[in-house]
Amino acid sequence: MKKNDSFSYDVRRNESIVVEVTPINFNASMFSVRANLDGNNWPAQPGSEDQPRFEFTVSKPVNDIHTAIFEFTFVEGSPDEAFYDVVIKGENDQGCPCGFKVKKTTANKEPAVEFFVVG
Amino acid sequence: MKPHPSIAAVLVLLLCISPVCMAQTSSDCQEIRDTIRALQKKTYDKDVSASVREINNKALADLYAQLLACIEREIKVIADISTTVAGTNAADGVNLKLRELRNEKATIEGQLARIGPTVRDPALGNGNGAPASDSMTRVNFSSPAPSDNSTTGTVDTVANAQATFPCLPAETYPDAPPLLTDIAGKAAADFVRDGGGVSGIPQMTLYATIDAASPTSSELLRGLEAYQYLSETARTDKQIGGAANSNGAVSAIEKPGFASLLGFAVEHGAINKKADGTNLTLSTSLYSLYVLNKENTAETYRRAGVLNRIGASATFAIDDTTDELANARRNNLSEWSVRARLFGDRSTRSKEFQKFWQTKINPLIDARLEAIGKPIEELTSAPGAPEDYNILRRQAGDCLRAAVASRTADADFKAATADERIKMVTSVLLSQIRSNIYNRVKTGQFQLGEKMITAIETRYVPNLRAALADLKRAGGEIEKKLEELKKSPLATFAYTNFRVPTASDYSETKFLFEQEKGFMRPLTLTGNVGLSVYHRPDRTLNQQRLRDVFAALSFEGQSDSPFTEAENRGKITYSFVGRYQRLFENRRVLGRTADIGNLQFITEIPLFRGLSLPFSVTYSTATEEEKKQGFRFNFGTRLDMDKLFELLRANSKF
Questions:
Q1: Greatest mean pLDDT among B26-35, B49-58, B310-319
Q2: How many angstroms away from the CA of A69 is the closest CA of chain B?
Q3: Which pLDDT does position B517 carry in this prediction?
């Protein structure tokens, strides 16, 4: 996987991609992250409730795009310091660490990540 | 191979950029632009064969390099002029031209980066005579294709697409739909504040496509309001401070809710400080100490188990007003306490709230994500998707990123405030989306097809509208659920150690209970029952081990305030409190009575966010010191520093 910017990556066919979300400083507040991959609900891996982990394998042909859209929620009363640390990992990563942070002050809480299939 | 008439046109154009022709044209960038435009038109011709396209692209690459060099010369000249006219009325116009040229330069560099490694002679480098840099090859869409037959011909396809969707000059998008301006504004704000990239490009591309697809789809899209996240609003149930009978306290009853204690303690580095002018209270929780050298993740919280139910605080009398923390010494310690939540959980991590969220809210969030994700997928990859929409997406995204990067290099951007920068980046995003997506679809240069337009009008936008409406309704349900959560029963055990410099120290144990959905609904019922014991009873003062027993009951309500700002949800609160105490040392003492009763009315009126007026009137049958009935009045002002800091932060956010 090659990083173009935090929300755009070049990937290769059959490459395994993992998006790991770590909610930090939420204390007694609930956290919620929902994801959609290529138009379909993208559930986190079973057993990863504390640190939701989303996985997929690049299956589209070259020049196509896998699109992941997330929504991160900060429920009422969550600490100001709460944030989601999103780490994106592929294979033979270039330009990483890859991913982004979503804070309470982040304006766009529905970031979309594009994975361009280049080989 | 059958000869194609386009070959002749291309050869003519190639001739024009030959050294013979260059001598006449190199000094005029406009001529090169016109030539590029003419050559691009040939690329749009669907009858053009692959071999002709290859020649086309080679020619385009050379022209881009030539234009780049030309523009760089112009930039240099105009930059000199800009320096000369700085501070005069002419400066704005010159700087505008300079900015336009830089934007154009960035766009052309993007084109070169894409075309360069696939069709250009490597010796040409980046068009400036230098080898292609890593940053330029980074955005190359094509890579060597694997042996898989489905991916062969990549270079051709990409090269064709590069020529098909070059970055076009920005065009203002003054009437952009609300959903588009919203996501562009948010992406711009995050880019300016945090850097790291432009988020939300797929959504921007989708909204611009829908806006351009047909008059009907545009109208439908423009009927949708921007999405309001199911996020943070003010929650006002926090309560930290000394015990009810400490000097700074107004109320005769104490509430069990100390849920937010945990949050504050961790937020402020394990220890929370609160001062009211009379007392300094430092509070913490066992969890906040547990998490000190760990990352405060959900897993850490879960592992802490019972530790997140226990909190501790210490209150010190303030005699040094210049340095509040200097009062935190043994001599000033007036009390310390430990509290444990026995039952009830009012946090949003409670099982009840999580179940509500999973069953009621998650499906709605998923539905909205699907309402956005599905059209993007069907436009991009699904069978029957418009040809090359994936290429259009990629290239428009690259154009947009390049334009944003270019804008940030401008002198006026660097000199601007954060707010101004956000406006500048928003403007760049919208104008790039307009020229590179909207215009191409609108003018028919990019054909969506009737089937896709029908899908946009009959499924995509209606689905999005339904999902947004459902989420808007869900916002009300969440508020209702949070209100219910606040009203659920909560019981706490508290131990407080009072240190009395001029008398005997004693300890108090107390059971605190609160129930909002009780028989006095809508009034909240709060009850305290407890006793206190002396550590070393002073027999000369008639003290024995058991100091007192007490019970208190409170009924509390609230109503809307007519005094606050529209967005301030602070309410007028009022309560009626009855308290009985039997103070054993007062038995058989002249002028005192062991039985002390209080009736109290308390109200607090919020004026504006962070400032309120508390008032109380108390009738007592006696005090601890004398058997004397009477009324006592307390009133003043209360400043909520957290809210005031929040306001300050909001005002200085950018």
A1: B310-319
A2: 7
A3: 65
Residues on chain B touching A2 (C-beta within 8 angstroms): 138
What would the DSSP string read from start to end of B105-116?
HHHHHHHHHHHH
**Which element (helix H / strand E) includes B602?**
strand B595-608
Q: Do A77 and B146 touch (CB under 8 A)?
A: no
What one-character DSSP code corresponds to residue B166? P
DSSP string, A18-79: EEEEEEES-TTS-EEEEEEETTEE-PPPTT-SSS-EEEEE--SPTT-EEEEEEEEEE-TT--
- A79/B266 Cβ within 8 A: yes
Q: What is the mean pLDDT of residues A73-89?
A: 92
Structure tokens at B346: 């009012």
Confidence at residue A68, expressed as pLDDT on a 0 to 100 scale: 98
Residues of A in contact with B194 (CB under 8 A): 101, 103, 106
**A4, A12, A108: residue with CB nearest B199:** A108
> Which one of A36, A59, A81, A94 would you mutate to disrupt binding with B, by most B Cβ within 10 Å of its Cβ?
A36
- H-run or E-run covering A95: none
Residue of B149, B348, B404 best to disrupt the A interface, most CBs of A under 10 A: B348
Q: How far is A75 from chain B (nearest CA, A)?
A: 5
Q: Round to whole Å and give the CA distance between B599 and B100.
A: 75
Which residues in A lie closer than 8 A to residue B142 (C-beta atoms)? Answer: 62-63, 118
Flag if A61 and B196 touch (Cβ within 8 Å).
no
Mention every residue, 6+ apart, whose C-beta is less than 8 A from residue B211. B176, B177, B180, B217, B218, B221, B222, B438
B3 lies within 8 A of chain A by CB: no
B258 touches chain A (CB under 8 A): no
What pTM does this model have? 0.67
ipTM: 0.97
Rounded to 5 degrees, φ, ψ at B291 are -90, 0
Question: pLDDT tens-digit profile of B347-381?
Answer: 888 888 999 999 999 999 999 999 999 999 999 99
Tokens (6 digits) for B434: 């307009």
pLDDT over threshold 70, residue B263: no
- Condensed to tens digits (0 to 9), the pLDDT of residues B220-240 reads 999 998 888 876 433 333 333
d(C-alpha B93, C-alpha A93), whole Å: 45
B558 bridge partner residues: B573
Measured between its terminal Cα atoms, the distance across chain A in Å is: 10
